[in-house]
Amino acid sequence: RQEVQVLPGAPDEAKWAWLRANLPALAAAGSVIVFVAQRGAAELLAGRITAQLQLPVATLHGDKDQAERTK
After folding, report:
1. Cβ neighbours of 5 (radius 10 Å)
2. Can you tell me the distance from the alpha carbon of 67 to that of 28, in angstroms, rounded to the nearest whole number?
3. Of 48, 55, 54, nearest to 13 (Cα)?
4. What is the rounded distance in angstroms from the CA atom of residue 25 to the CA atom of residue 21?
5. Res. 1 pLDDT band, cuts 50 70 90
6. Whose CA, among 17, 22, 38, 69, lies 20 to 30 Å from 8?
7. What is the pLDDT of residues 9-64, one digit of tens each?
8. Which stretches within 1-71 are classed as H helix?
């Protein structure tokens, strides 16, 4: 089953609150992809998810070389 949630225009803290409330259950049910607008935001969000939710995270963006992307 595929589910899409779009949170356009919501402040970052509202988006984080939604992720904090929903991500653990979504991750328990299967793989999750979270899209962000900027590469730096991907790294910051990954760190926050790891630190606060203790979930395994991988980032994928253009600043990574091919070896890092295929890990």
Report:
1. 10
2. 28
3. 48
4. 8
5. confident
6. 69
7. 999 999 999 999 999 999 999 999 999 888 889 999 999 999 999 999 988 877 66
8. 12-29, 39-48, 66-69
CA separation for the pair 29, 31 (Å, rounded): 7
**Cα maximum dimension of the chain:** 34
Tokens of residue 36, six digits? 């962000």
Rounded-to-integer distance, Cα 61 and Cα 67, Å = 12
**Whole-prediction pTM:** 0.79
48 SS3 class: helix
Q: Quickly tell me which residue has 């089953």 as its tokens.
A: 1
pLDDT the model gives residue 3:
87
